[in-house]
Amino acid sequence: MTAPTLPFADLEQVYETLATTLDALPEEQERLFLAQLALALAHRVPDVALVREAIEEARRGLAVAAS
After folding, report:
1. Cα 52 from chain centroid?
2. HSE toward the beta carbon, residue 66, CA cutoff 13 A
3. Residue 25 confidence (pLDDT)
4. Which residues lie below 8 Å from residue 25, measured CB to CB, with a gap of 6+?
5. Cα separation, 42 vs 44, whole angstroms
6. pTM score, two decimals?
7. Residues near 3 by Cβ (< 8 Å), separated by ≥ 6?
8. pLDDT tops 70 at residue 6
9. Residue 23: is it exposed, middle or buried by C-beta count within 10 angstroms (0-12/13-18/19+)?
10. Among residues 1, 5, 38, 43, which one has the fewest Cβ atoms lying within 10 Å of its Cβ?
11. What is the pLDDT confidence band of residue 67, given thresholds at 50, 70 and 90?
């Protein structure tokens, strides 16, 4: 059984909300906001392994974007 995921349309809404929120913040607050968001979302996931996998997925995404 796979873990439930957001439908693509909902994921697009999340992206848009996140982008709009980041655009409205002063640049010096972006990192703190993203850290607080990550912790708030992690708090809602009942499995630490899934949270760690998401962190690793995001790290790999940065490596791909940099290459």
Report:
1. 12
2. 6
3. 98
4. 33
5. 5
6. 0.83
7. 50
8. yes
9. exposed
10. 1
11. confident
The pLDDT of residue 1:
57
Tokens of 67: 């290459």
**3-state SS, residue 54:** helix
- Measured distance CA(53)–CA(61) in Å, rounded: 12
Note whether 51 and 45 are within 8 A (CB): yes
Of 21, 23, 52, 24, give the one whose Cα is nearest residue 38. Answer: 52
C-alpha dist (Å) from residue 35 to 1, 3, 9, 13, 67: 30, 24, 25, 20, 24
Q: What digits encode the pLDDT tens for the residues 11-38?
A: 999 999 999 999 999 999 999 999 999 9
Position 43: which residue type? H
CA distance linking residue 50 with residue 43, whole number of Å: 11
